[in-house]
Amino acid sequence: MAILADLKDPRIEGVTVTYVEVSPDMRNAKVHVSIMGDETAQRLCLQGLQSSAGYLQQKVSRRIDTRYTPRIRFEIDMGVKNSIAIARMLNEVLPEESTAEEEPDSQLSTDSDHAELE
Fold first, then answer.
1. Which of 5, 24, 35, 34 is nearest to 70 (CA)?
2. CA 53 to CA 45: how far, in whole Å?
3. Could you tell me the domains of the chain?
4. Tens digit of pLDDT for each residue in 66-94?
5. What are phi and psi of 44, to 5 degrees?
6. CA 56 to CA 51: how far, in whole Å?
7. Who contacts 71 (Cβ-Cβ below 8 Å, separation ≥6)?
8. What is the value of pTM for the model shown?
9. At what angle do helices 53-63 and 39-51 cross, to 10 degrees?
10. DSSP classification of residue 70
């Protein structure tokens, strides 16, 4: 929520935190983010997030009571982008399902037409 509500950096927009990995000793946290836009916008947003890491670490330290506050590092999660690309490729390769659905309807209408004739 702090990324969405508290950060005022204009570079930071279209960000979704996908998951966070915390080291066993709680000293490091790798925050995976999905960023909308082209590569330039993603790079700028990632730089904005990295520059605000200290502020976000302070917010985390106020919320959790541990010996160490995790050092936050941001990484772009390519999983969302890759899944969208795969879905596009599948849509181009797979045949349309509309032709298979139309055939049973046409058979039903001919059966009912025969029933009306009798």
1. 24
2. 12
3. 2-95 (3.30.300.20)
4. 888 899 999 998 887 788 889 888 888 88
5. -60, -45
6. 10
7. 27, 28, 29, 53, 57
8. 0.67
9. 50
10. P
